[in-house]
From TrEMBL:
Residues 25-353 form the UDP-N-acetylglucosamine 2-epimerase domain. NCBIfam families: wecB. This is UDP-N-acetylglucosamine 2-epimerase. Keywords: Isomerase. GO terms for molecular function: UDP-N-acetylglucosamine 2-epimerase activity. The keyword Hydrolase does not apply. Its EC number is 5.1.3.14.
Length: 358
């Protein structure tokens, strides 16, 4: 069987990292990069850090509006898929690359498999929610990371024969690379283990100039109590620079990092403040309390369990929650004590399922 695996952004490279070598072993795999992420620090560094083979096609689509980016990806993907004639297209997550891959394949009547199917924030203002819903309804094989995702798909009327509860490849990506995490990286920033917070912000909803100013103002206040390390996504960097948004000297700004450095710093941190989807999952694997800078999340069960905390994006909510957390060590300890079953082994389950049913 010939499988075309499509990726385009940093989380897709990371979450596909344990699957790509397995797919190469078991099938003929054509690896296609849309080029949605293209800067070294958002793209190539992950292939190096995760020892991944190079892609067979790079479509160099780059940045643009949603329609431009998705449309250009579809035009270029159609050409490659017509040439390669795969039996199946494999996509992951909820980006425009995921949507373009699934939509192009289904219009060519090629079967689609979706890794991380069924996640829902129930917030259609997120471009990712639109992508997730459309991709799931186009897919022939849906690999759900957990029971919540499985139930979401059933509730939307997707036949259960198409859904496979396999776990989360992010867990395996993390465990596969764990030995490589750079736990010494904190010394470069003169930080002390478990005495600093990591911050990431990049969601479209959080990077309008007004919203970003409000979030950063809260971070400036928090940084009077705890040092904050902020590896800045390139979308966010552009907004900070063009609006001349000021950060205090206790907020350490750096470029986006590779996986080994980032995960080394995350694992040594006291807590993480983030609007990332992937970091919510990784924080659970590393047992680092995760404070979510969003109103909704597609990983709500971790919040319901008391493992992660949903802060919202209003200044008062963020500052009050962090102040409360920092004033009582027991609150952080309680979050760390919540046990989560990580359900390792998703990549192998996906490959074995495809061998049987696709
Ligand atoms: C995309 C995904 C989002 C995912 C994120 C992972 C969509 C709709 N969004 O958001 O779900 O969480 O990737 O990081 O697919 N840029 C660069 N160099 C790069 C990449 C981006 O400079 O290599 C800058 C450009 O200014 C670009 C902006 O970042 O316009 C946004 O990039 P884009 O890929 O459109 O969206 P992300 O915010 O990265
Ligand atoms: N990440 C990284 N370096 C950074 C920031 C994030 O390696 O400077 C990794 C992080 O470990 C996670 C992934 O990037 O695996 C998350 O990507 P992002 O937050 O951009 O996207 P999302 O998960 O929200 O789609």
């Amino acid at each position: 069987m010939k499988i075309a695996t499509i990726l385009g952004t940093r989380p897709e490279i990371i979450k596909f990292s344990p699957l790509i070598p397995l797919l190469d072993q078991e099938f003929t795999q054509v690896l296609i990069h849309t080029g949605q992420h293209y800067s070294y620090s958002m793209d190539k560094i992950f292939f190096e850090d995760l020892n991944l083979r190079s892609c067979d096609y790079t479509l160099n689509v780059g940045s643009g509006s949603h329609a431009q980016q998705t449309g250009e990806m579809m035009i270029k993907l159609e050409e490659v898929l017509l040439r390669e004639k795969p039996d199946l297209v494999l996509v992951q997550g909820d980006t425009n690359s995921t949507l373009a891959g699934a939509l192009t394949a289904s219009k060519l009547q090629i079967k689609v498999a979706h890794v991380e199917a069924g996640c829902r924030s129930f917030d259609k203002n997120m471009p990712e929610e639109v992508n997730r819903v459309v991709v799931d309804h186009l897919s022939d094989f849906l690999f759900a990371p957990d029971e919540n995702a499985y139930e979401n798909l059933i509730n939307e009327g997707i036949p259960k024969e198409k859904i496979y509860l396999v776990g989360n490849t992010s867990v395996d990506a993390c465990l596969r690379a764990k030995e490589l995490f750079n736990k010494e990286k904190l010394k470069d920033f003169s930080l002390i283990k478990e005495s600093y917070a990591v911050l990431t912000i990049h969601r479209q909803e959080n990077t309008s100039s007004e919203k970003l100013k409000e979030i950063i103002s809260s971070i400036n206040t928090i940084s009077n109590t705890v040092n904050v390390l902020f590896p800045v996504h390139l979308r966010t960097k552009a907004v900070i620079e063009s609006n001349k948004i000021n950060l205090t000297e206790n907020v350490i700004l750096t470029d986006p990092m590779g996986y080994k450095d980032f995960m080394g710093l995350l694992s040594n941190s006291k807590f993480v403040l983030t609007d990332s989807g992937g970091i919510q999952e990784e924080a659970v694997v590393l047992n680092v309390p995760c404070l979510i800078l969003r109103d909704t999340t597609e990983w709500m069960h971790y919040v319901d369990m008391g493992k992660n905390l949903l802060l919202g994006t209003e200044q008062s909510g963020i500052v009050d929650s962090v102040t409360e957390l920092l004033s009582d060590e027991e609150k952080i300890s309680a979050m760390k004590r919540v046990k989560v079953n990580l359900n390792e082994g998703a990549p192998l389950k996906i490959v074995n399922t495809l061998k049987k049913v696709a």
